[in-house]
Automatic annotation (TrEMBL):
Subcellular locations according to the entry: Cell membrane
GO CC annotation terms, alphabetical: plasma membrane
One of the protein's GO biological processes: establishment of competence for transformation
Membrane topology according to the record: Multi-pass membrane protein
Protein name in the entry: Competence protein ComEC
Length: 737
């Protein structure tokens, strides 16, 4: 079983998938090894082949490259609960049909300004389809891996649509129940109640999610193994209590009845929550735990857990691509390590405290390996929130939902549950403000292994030799793994922020951020991409935040950056148009300075008539190699720059205005004469950036093109005259090249 699990999990770490002929050959090789009693190797090959074949099926179900960016009429049924936010309706479509092409089995679509949609409805839609594609940045969320794990073969934007049939099935019933829950007054926490009852987190605000992340309590607001186990435990405990009091019919053996009812309750709750992959995983684990309790207690607890792990992976080998898989099973294994085989009884508060201690310390290596933030306040917050939600809010919410048909009764219970949730969020907000989450820097393998060994030692029982050595090993957490550039050199990162711009420049002892990425409603690229990249690179402060101008695609993420890191000074070409809290100063033409042997110069057109023309231009020179960052200046501003007398020759040029036709004039391109051009843009953007005419001008001067869409985040070692590197070329089998 261990060999089979290891073979399946190896998929997560593959740069590329083996060829199909090899995947067919490996199981045959395993069968040939059986006479030699090589059972572990045989089952390892079986697991590895099965995982790779499933991954290849998912990759083959992606949108045909010839259809990428095209608009097609499709028909399909809405599955899951549609999400609404900032005027955008996001939903998944299955049973997809099109007269013109074969399409993936599942699509994820966005409808800007769309009407209210219901799960179970069938629609005919005109959709602009795109192959799965995500932003690729250092230490940021891998959207493409998530799409593959969800088996989503294409994304798209709805242009127009018509309803073919009304909602039907279980999905429609869940949607009606969600609307009912959202319509019940509950102290403004109706969305949180829907999350607890139905697993629909779309009703929680960005501020709510930030508080939950900072306090390490996200698991409480999504239906996870804890909620499924709680439901099963309450039903099991009900029958066990009746039997203990002598109120259970003696003709019915109480233990099998308790196990059966508990499992039925877990399945019912799972169906209510949509039976997604995490819920299926929890139901399998609860079912095996109940089976162990009823019949097979002699197996211990490790073997049933291994069986649950195996069942989950056999049903969905791609589950290993999701962080929740590792955190879920990691948490269960930690609890087994803490509580199994201990001598003596613990009080309830000791049990809860030990559990939170295990989660805080034991999950630390996993969180770091997955690039997730670590909540320093998590143990304290969970010590309060776990019993609060588990023993009070969830039972009241479920009972209130069940009694909604009784006039006034269900609403009253939900009102009380909402009040308890509102009070909890107020307390968690105070804790989050006091001690927000910490994003550790990326560690080298040796430092991570030391931390993992240290956590294992600390979780061992008291009295184990060398247990206190774990504290010393945890000091590797504070090792700064990111080497700084040498004196006279600069490291430049053009982050992949879609249709926007954010460039990080690091010298030996200073850091500058040129633009902060865009923000679209609650979707803030400054918070989701720029900040994690800064923290992963061990940048905790900025000497200068230079916002070229105040357009959203350049300045939208500035507030998130300010909240996340300390900023010494803010400069902009449009300081008056930025939020006052940034306290931005005006960009000055002709200003220059040196950091660690690297020279910086700024320029701004004094006669600018619009925001783009007012962009603050930055020239960086390291060991004779020059880079020109131009913001969104147009051809008129380019002419003014050439007339200013500034030497604009540069080895690296950030294409003005993302490669727009209104910029990169022939005279400007010839004057700069770059050997390489950097383009930051979004895939299939509506502006047509970069324009073919502009690309032709750069090719005419033999400049090499670096594009964030094609290569992800770009890294340049300025001062070494070396070629640039794109993160998308780091091989991952699920990543679009």
């Amino acid at each position: 079983m261990l060999a089979l699990v290891a073979g399946i999990l190896l998929l997560r770490f593959l740069p590329t998938l083996p060829p199909v002929w090899l995947l067919c050959l490996l199981p045959m090789l395993g069968l040939m090894l059986l006479p030699f009693r090589s059972y572990p190797l045989t089952f390892f090959l079986f697991g590895f082949s099965w995982a790779c074949i499933c991954a290849q099926w998912a990759l083959d179900d992606r949108l045909d490259p010839q259809l990428d960016g095209r608009t097609l009429w499709v028909q399909g049924q809405i599955v899951g609960l549609p999400e609404v936010g900032d005027g955008v309706v996001r939903f998944q479509l299955e049973q997809v049909e099109s007269r013109r092409a074969k399409l993936p089995e599942r699509l994820r679509l966005a409808w800007y300004g769309g009407p209210e949609l219901r799960a179970g409805e069938t629609w005919r839609l005109a959709v602009r389809l795109k192959r799965p594609h995500g932003l690729v940045n250092p230490h940021a969320f891998d959207y493409e891996a998530w799409l593959l794990a969800q088996r989503i073969g294409a994304t798209g934007t709805v242009k127009t649509a018509e309803r073919v049939s009304v909602a039907s099935g279980v999905g429609a019933w869940r949607d009606v129940l969600r609307q009912r829950l959202l319509g019940v007054p509950a102290h403004g926490r109706e969305g949180a109640l829907a999350a607890l009852v139905l697993g629909d987190g779309s009703g929680l605000s960005v501020a709510d999610w930030r508080v939950l992340q900072d306090t390490g309590t996200v698991h409480l607001m999504v239906i996870s193994g804890q909620h499924i186990a709680l439901m099963a435990g309450l039903l099991y405990g009900l029958i066990a209590g009746l039997a203990r009091l002598g109120w259970w019919p003696r003709a019915w053996p109480w233990l099998p009845c308790a196990c059966a009812l508990a499992f039925a309750g877990a399945l019912g709750y799972g169906m209510l929550a949509g039976f997604e992959v995490p819920v299926r995983r929890a139901c399998v684990m609860v079912g095996l735990a109940l089976l162990w309790r009823w019949r097979f207690r002699h197996l211990g607890v490790g073997l049933p857990l291994l069986m649950a792990l195996l069942v989950v992976l056999l049903l969905e080998p791609l589950a290993g691509l999701q962080p929740g898989f590792w955190l879920s099973f990691g948490a269960v294994m930690l609890l087994i390590l803490i509580f199994n085989g201990r001598l003596g009884a613990w009080t309830w508060w000791q049990t809860l405290g030990r559990a939170q201690w295990a989660m805080a310390v034991g999950l630390l290596p996993l969180l770091m390996a997955l690039g997730l933030p670590v909540s320093a306040s998590g143990p304290l917050a969970n010590l309060l929130a776990v019993p609060w939600v588990g023993l009070a809010v969830v039972p009241l919410a479920l009972l209130g939902t069940l009694l909604l048909p009784l006039f006034g009764v269900g609403e009253a219970l939900l009102w009380v549950a909402g009040g308890l949730l509102d009070l909890l969020f107020m307390l968690l907000s105070q804790i989050a403000d006091w001690l927000p989450a910490w994003q550790p820097s990326a560690l080298p393998l040796w430092a991570w292994l030391l931390c993992a060994l240290g956590t294992v030692l600390l979780l061992l029982p008291a009295g184990v030799p060398l247990r206190s050595l774990g504290w010393l090993l945890l000091l590797a957490l504070f090792y700064t793994p990111q080497p700084r550039p040498a004196l006279g050199q600069a490291e430049v990162w053009v982050l992949d922020v879609g249709q926007g711009l954010s460039v990080l420049l690091r010298t030996h002892g200073h850091t500058l951020l040129y633009d902060a990425g865009p923000r679209f409603g609650d979707f803030d690229l400054g918070e989701r991409v720029v900040l994690p990249s800064l923290r992963g690179l061990d940048e905790r402060r900025l000497d200068l935040l230079l916002i070229s101008h105040a357009d959203n695609d350049h300045a939208g993420g500035a507030r998130a950056i300010q909240r996340g890191v300390a900023i010494e000074r803010v400069v902009s070409g449009e300081p008056e148009a930025l939020p006052a809290v940034l306290q931005a100063q005006a960009c000055e033409a002709g200003r220059s300075w040196q950091w660690d042997g690297v020279r910086f110069s700024t320029w701004r057109w004094a006669d600018a008539r619009n925001a783009n023309q007012a962009s603050c231009v930055l020239l960086v020179e390291a060991a004779g190699e020059r880079m020109l960052l131009t913001g969104d200046i147009d051809s008129r501003a380019e002419r003014a720059l050439l007339d200013s007398g500034l030497d604009v020759r540069a080895d690296w040029l950030l294409a003005p205005h993302h490669g727009s036709r209104s910029s990169s004039s022939p005279a400007f391109v010839r004057a700069v004469a770059p050997r390489a051009v950097l383009i930051s843009r979004g895939q299939h953007n509506s502006f047509g950036h970069p324009h073919p005419t502009v690309l032709a001008r750069y090719h005419a001067v033999f400049a090499r093109i670096y594009d964030t869409v094609e290569q992800g985040a770009l890294r340049v070692q300025l001062g070494t005259f070396a070629a640039g590197q794109g993160l998308r070329h780091r091989a991952r089998f699920w990543r679009e090249k």
